[in-house]
Amino acid sequence: MREMLQVLDIQQLTMDFGGLRAIDGVDLEVRQGEIVALIGPNGAGKTTFFNCVTGVYEPTGGRMTVRPPGKNVAVRLNRLKPNIITEHGLARTFQNIRLFQNMTVLENVMVARHCRTRSGILGAIFKNAGNRREEQEIVDFSYGLLEKVGLQMHVNDLARELPYGAQRRLEIARALATEPFLLLLDEPAAGMNPRETSELDALITRIRDDEGVSILLIEHDMKLVMSISQRIYVMDYGRLIAQGTPKEIAENPNVIKAYLGETFDA
Amino acid sequence: MKAQSLPFIRRAASEIFQSLLVSCWFMFLTFPIMVIKVNPLERTIDWQWMRLVWIGLAVFPLSFVWRWLMKRKEHGGGQDGEDSWQKRLGEKIRADRKIYTALLAILAVFVAAFPFMFSSYQTQIMISALMYVMLGLGLNIVVGLAGLLDLGYVAFYAVGAYSYALLNHHFGLGFWPALPLGAGLAAVCGILLGFPVLRLRGDYLAIVTLGFGEIIRLVLENWNAFSFGPSGIAGISRPWFFGADLSLGQHTVFLYFIVLILVGFTILVVNRLRNSRIGRAWIALREDEVACQAMGIDKTRTKLTAFALGATWAGFVGCVFAAKTTFINPASFTFMESAIILSIVVLGGMGSIIGVIVGAMVLILLPEYLRAFSEYRMLVFGASMVLIMVFRPQGIIVGVRQHYRFGRKESTEEQGERDAASA
Questions:
Q1: Same-domain status, A65 and A121
Q2: Most-buried pick from A218, B11, B17, B251 (CB within 10 A)?
Q3: Which backbone phi and psi does B232 adopt, to 5 degrees?
């Protein structure tokens, strides 16, 4: 019953921007080893939801808790800074790719080792044995991740020179470098062609299986969502309108209504 | 035949017409300052029409050159070629250890022999150029690496200089103990400035730091009891050299070597920092603040370390400056200094160590050697700055990121692929 352990628990999450309620009382949970999708029409509040969970926004209401697997603690995420949340084991990618454009591919991943390494200014200046060892570990670890996402031939290229699909994969590798137990992917397949999407499908599943990372993803590509996720949450206008297995969601009248925009009067 | 040459003639005519327009425009613009000369004694106006003709004649061909350069830049062909040429040279030098060490050795010998080959005056100029190299490299941490636009960098320079001057004046402290103290105090000031500006970026940060620089200068100018106001502090001791009584010339040589060693130390430190955990965090912060934080980097700490380390170097140079001139007053720490240091970083190439060194040499030595042109030197200086920024906005030398080799792994990778292909 390892699968049943909860790693992320969101209760009644609410986010107001002035008078606008972008998220309205959303409950969501991710269990260990699960791939969960969050879908919904444009402007439904999905990315805002991610931004609340990762500390970019401070939600106006609700409880957000993570339970790192293997540690018998629950960490409340409300009011934590983004970097602390990452340290607790949540990592994310961005909808509009936010790589460090003028750094090399390898360095992009190396940056993300920051919170798992220690060496400081003096270590960098004097390059003592410990610092050199740590630096080598960073390089090796990062290279290993790039091999995993299939970017090892690009290590020394600048991130901005990569093709689009490769940039998305680099974002995933960078997020993995923080050693998360929960990975939040914001539209990882956006702008990818069908072949790249199916590769991504395999990659996400592999990450879950090999690294034991649970995954929560926002995605518009229904084929991808339906094929890899165990459970799906559907948002519309800031509210959760449905949740369930892919099959249940595909048949849910509310979801169909939200997507096709039929207007019934009850 | 005629039909073919017609478009060419038409194009040439339009080019000439454009240049004519440009030169007329320049003649009109410069008319008040170049043509009208008031003779205050006889209360008459001398009309120097010939000058107008010269301007017209000079601008006419120059406008062709300008348009040609602009076209070349737009096509990007020339620039790319230049870049790849530079890249190839750089790679060649880096790849071939022999050439690299030979070049380095020649440079080291030249630099070490410099004060004995040239006059004391030349050495003095070189000392100030090297000081600006250090200032540039220090500011490069803040602006080039961490991407925090700091227009008040001179404040830390002033803190360093006044630390040494005041410690020397009141307690008779020598140069050597004052050097780390001055740098430390500047670092503390860097952190003090860092705290309130943590939330700011870009233009807002620039304005606040500009204000900070002016505040320090105004305090030094007006707090007579503390800093002796505009009259400054005189009679600051020169650096101690094993108790030897050095002549002025010998002091200059000694100071030259002090600065040289400090520059070497700075290059070493900045180079190591750039490719370290902290350095990567700075660059990540510059590239994308949100992503940087999402990758687990503490924005606050990273910004503060950048400010503190940048300020440390200004503090070092401040101490050296006070020891060099033996007299300081607030007039040495105006906004103009900050602007020059920033220009060194931007012109030389942000984030590039060699770029900053070249930038400092150009910006400090050029006005010195242009003294022959007396009143035109600032004009030439300004024009060359504009030209560099128009045609090479990324700076004279572009910073290159460290490359990592995975010889063993890559070769096994290739091996695997080859095996798979042959199978």
A1: no
A2: A218
A3: 75, -170
Q: pTM of the full predicted structure?
A: 0.83
Does residue B410 belong to the interface with chain A, where contact is any CB pair within 8 Å? yes
Q: Where are the alpha helices (DSSP H) in B76-119?
A: 77-95, 97-117
Least Cα separation, residue A182 to chain B (angstroms): 13
Dihedral sign, Cα of residue B319, residue B132, residue B212, residue B291: negative
Nearest-CB residue to A100 (from B287, B299, B309):
B287
Rounded to the nearest angstrom, the minimum Cα separation between A190 and chain B is: 18
Q: Which residue has the tokens 């150029």?
A: B129
The CATH number assigned to the domain holding B196 equals 1.10.3470
Last residue of a domain, one of A120, A152, A179: A179
Are B26 and B163 within one domain? Answer: no
The tens digit of pLDDT for each residue in A1-10 reads: 444 688 999 9
> What is the interface pTM, i.e. ipTM, of the complex?
0.90
- In chain B, which residue's Cα lies nearest the Cα of A53? B294
Structural domain count of chain A:
2
Using CA coordinates, name the residue in chain A closest to B273. Answer: A124
Instruction: Determine the distance in angstroms separating the CA of B180 from the nearest CA of chain A, rounded to an integer.
Output: 15
| B404: enclosing H helix or E strand | none
B394 touches chain A (CB under 8 A): no
Residue A85 and residue A90: Cα distance in Å, rounded?
6
Rg (CA), chain B: 26
| Residue of chain A whose Cα is closest to the Cα of B306 | A121
Locus of tokens 């039909």: B3
Q: In sequence order, what DSSP letters do the residues of B304-359 get, joined into one string?
A: HHHHHHHHHHHHHHHHHHHHHHS-B-GGGGSHHHHHHHHHHHHHH-TT-HHHHHHH
| A61-66, strands of its sheet edge to edge | A20-31, A6-17, A61-66, A75-76
- Residue B394: strand, helix, or coil: coil
Locus of tokens 């400081």: A120
How many residue contacts between A and B have a Cβ separation below 8 Å? 126
Q: Which residues of chain B are within 8 Å of residue A110 when distances are taken between CB atoms?
A: 280
Residue B412 has pLDDT above 50, yes or no: no
Instruction: For residues B335-358, give the mean pLDDT.
Output: 88
Do B157 and B316 contact (CB within 8 A), yes or no?
Answer: no
Q: Provide the CA B58 distance to its chain's centre, in angstroms.
A: 31
Q: Model confidence over B111-167: pLDDT tens digits? A: 888 888 888 888 899 999 999 999 999 999 999 899 899 999 999 999 999 999 999
Q: Are B297 and A115 in contact (CB under 8 A)?
A: yes
Would residue B249 count as lying in a domain?
A: yes
Q: Which residues of B touch A158 (CB under 8 A)?
A: 401
**pLDDT band, residue B421 (cuts 50/70/90):** very low
